[in-house]
Fold this protein.
Amino acid sequence: MKNFEFASPQTEAEAVGLLQDHGGRTAVLAGGTDLVGLLQADLVAPERVVDVRQIQSMSGVRREADGLWVGALTTLDDVLASPLLKPYLSLVQVADAHHAIQIQSSGTLGGDLCHLPNCWYYRNGYGLLAMKDGESLVETGDNRYHAILGNSGPAKFVNASRFAPALIAWGAKVRIIGPAPEQVEVVPLEYFYISPKSANQGNTILKPGQLISHIWLPAIEPTHVSATYEVLQMEGLDWPLATASVTLDVEGGIVRAARVVLGHVAPTPWVSQEAASLLRNQMVTEDLANAVGAAAVSKATPLSNNEYKVQIAKTAVKRAVLKAVGQLEGGL
Amino acid sequence: MSTTEANPGKKYTVIGTRPIRHDGVDKVTGRAKYGGDIRLTGMLFGVMLRSPHAHANIKSIDYSAALALPGVHAVVTVDDFPDAENKIAELGEGAINLQHLRHNVLAGPKALYRGHAVAAVAADTVNIAEDACKLIKVEYEVLKPVLTAPEAMKPDAPLLHNNVYTNSLGEETKQLSNVAKHFRFEKGDLEAGFKAAKVIVEREFNTATVHQGYIEPHNGTAMWNSDGKVTVWCSTQGSFTARQQVAELCHIPVGNVKVIPMEIGGGFGGKVSVYLEPVAAILSKKTGRPVKIIMNRADCFEGTGPTPGSYIRVKMGADANGKITAAEAYMAYEAGGYPGSPIGAGAMCVFACYDVPNGKVDGFDVCVNKPHTNAYRAPGATNAAMATETVIDEICEQLKMCSMEFRLKNAAVEGTRRIDGPVYPRIGMIESVEAIKNSDHWKTPLTGKNRGRGIATGFWFNCGLKSAVTATVNFDGSVGLVEGSTDIGGSRTGIAMQFAETLGIPVDQVMPSVGDTDSVGYTDVTGGSRVTFATGWAAYEAGLDIARQMCQRAATLWEVPADQVKYENGGVSGPGGKQISFKDLVVQTCKHGEPIVGRGSADPQCPGGAFATHCVDVEVDPDTGKVTVLRYTASQDVGTAIHPAYVEGQIQGGAVQGIGWGLNEEYFYDQSGVMRNSTFLDYRMPTCLDLPMIEAIIVEVPNPGHPYGVRGVGEVPIVPPPAALANAIYNAVGVRMTQLPMSPPRVLHEILAKK
């Protein structure tokens, strides 16, 4: 680990100012559950670490007319405890499924959205694209956990955020501040992630000196139902083999609107229009859920070692759909 | 938890009770001292530079730039060790050629696996030492790696060594090869045996490399004093073998090395060989200051001794009545970079549970470009049981016979000759199977979709080896007990209990501690399920020694001849109904005469083998391949359960490690020989959330070769789980798993292939 300056600002403006110095070679510390490991492995070597945990405006959940503003510092435990977030079942299910007291008490929503890929090539210093001598290590190497969708470009890793699929399925936006003082933009989370095309690109639209301050969630209607199904190999601390989150607007048993988002299958959270369109104006049955699952992976292009993930992703979608409408056997 | 005793008549006062362990409070309050807690004045921090390549010639190492970095005090390579002798050092549970050990500690002409240590730096801080490592220029000639035993055995496979010749059936050949050894056990007439069979099943199995996964990483601190004496603080399963290895590698007398064993955060066999201690010693010699080195998790995975991946083929035949007529095994175990896999033990265990009239076992010790394998709880036996026990399940299916009955019918008993030669004394194989047969678990029918039940049996040895203890009687009647077995599983309490039983005193009046190598007699490693057995025996001897001295004192006190007094019931009795308790006698006589010190040593020759039978219920998710363990019961013949709670803990811990091995754990290598999952994120070990409570059934068939009937208990519970799980998975969804681990991708693959 390299030495670095440590700053602990009290306001969003101070944080933005501190992040701009050193040519933007700075890092944001929230829960630290990802950053500390990255620092120890020298994968991130900032000149300054800006600890944003003292910034009060970035904590807590606030209700406004059209929805909720959720502070980026909201921890997983906060998600589980918040009465305002409780109706967003698909989110609560993700927080609950972590089964790791330390991560749940210190990990934050903002940090989860910015979690860098768990790709072992990235984590061993080969960069997001895992290139060595101009060749992709993933394509010829061990790619059992890599992308099965959106993998035709140079990026083969899978997005590591566990909350992004559920948030995107809810139509969430992120409020980004910086790099200039007072600069603010609100962006649909769906457009926050990118699949990098070159080694100097990151996996989000965040520029040096920017950070997520809040997440916006639309107001929930009584007809909205949602669910997340994560396929986890272990019940304890683990990261999913594949995830699916669905948000449905169901009136009289008929799905009026649907969003289906997969996680851990592509370099970005994967919005499946094919799956969503099959659900619209239909009544959810096991057969329909099966078809929705199949549609979600119909364009999958598995790599040499991860064909199995296609089946697992399909199962995740099917079960998330059934779970949302309370039809999942065993109540899983 | 339940206990079945084979001889309920014999009762003890201390043995069989469940006192709180003597080291318990220190450990749960964080006060116990581990190697990482060592802080010495002027201490430097060492970091190892490790090979990024799985197989490479090291052409040159230039560390001048590292040495020039401010804060760096020394850099060492293998050249800083004197040349090692080409001889074998016995380490208790395993042995190693010293030249190989030297080159494993710091790579010699070749780096033989990814993570192989190449150089080491001592600096003021860990950060400086890490930066210095990056400045060391190593010129590698990268070679093609070979990663599995079957690949390494091919005639055109890349060779790891230019001085390893195959020892074939006892003959030293001139054949340069990755196969260091091929041996064979034979019994009866194999061909006739298979001819007599009604059913023959032959299957191939592949098991992955797995790690012991102890929580505490390896650590070593050394101070090479100006008088030539070296003190080492470390986390080790054998302070005396650590001393021997440091002395041999540094070419100094063992008397010049003192090893102070610290508390251990898990070993499971992986902390017998040294990795850091000799390096810390030579860094200290160069700098004149104490040097401490601690591994990180990736170092532990890549640079220590996991247990081998293996290729096994088992063929077994049985007649129409379900009696085994013949059994044959071909077993190739990966030794890693240097010869010395646990193939010998694996080959002895493969059919050890059964009376096999005609058999043949071929064992191969094969070098591959992976870390040099080391002991892991019943080393070699789990791989073997996976093969034998699933083949038996298949035979029983074909014979339409309950596999429990098959196991009872073919069980090894007193007088059965194991395929490698030894004839069993009284053993508890049948009792361990019957305990499962009589369990609530077995009697409760399993219902539900995609659910299945499996059983499997396993065997493991119990070593004797040398142990010593010293007992010092205090003036208040309490006793300080110093023993040489480093304590990885609550053994100091188990030893103190046997000592207390011998003298008939309360165990809380005994204060056991683990001594350093200057303060207690020679004691072999904590391994081979031997400590409660052999060091317990030494404690028994020390108790007898003290009892003799107490008799002398009582005779003097009462002015009667020594032959008229007797030690019994926690004190001494004499003529005319005279009686005095141990404590009263000590208090009355301690002011006069010499201090009372007892000694005990043991090198027992009649260890008892241990048998375990496990029963598991699983549910398999047919859409994801995930296996959920619903219920688990493990029975085991433990001889005598000295401290039943710790015995249950050993059974549960071993079963859990076996479940992890069976379902999830595996080193992922890519073609270049790089381990891809060297973190606990992707090397998946089960936690309490993945498991039901493991029900432990203690079966007590006392070992006739021990004063208290003790058998080793710590290792055999890891043997049956993968096979029991494989049998349960078959019962649930109809797929036969022949590869470990049975992780979701593999199980799913088999389910889809069947469809």
Q: What stands out?
A: The domain at 425-462+607-755 of chain B is CATH 3.30.365.10 (Aldehyde Oxidoreductase; domain 4). The CA atoms of residues 12 and 126 of chain B lie 53 Å apart. The first helix of chain B runs from residue 24 to 28.
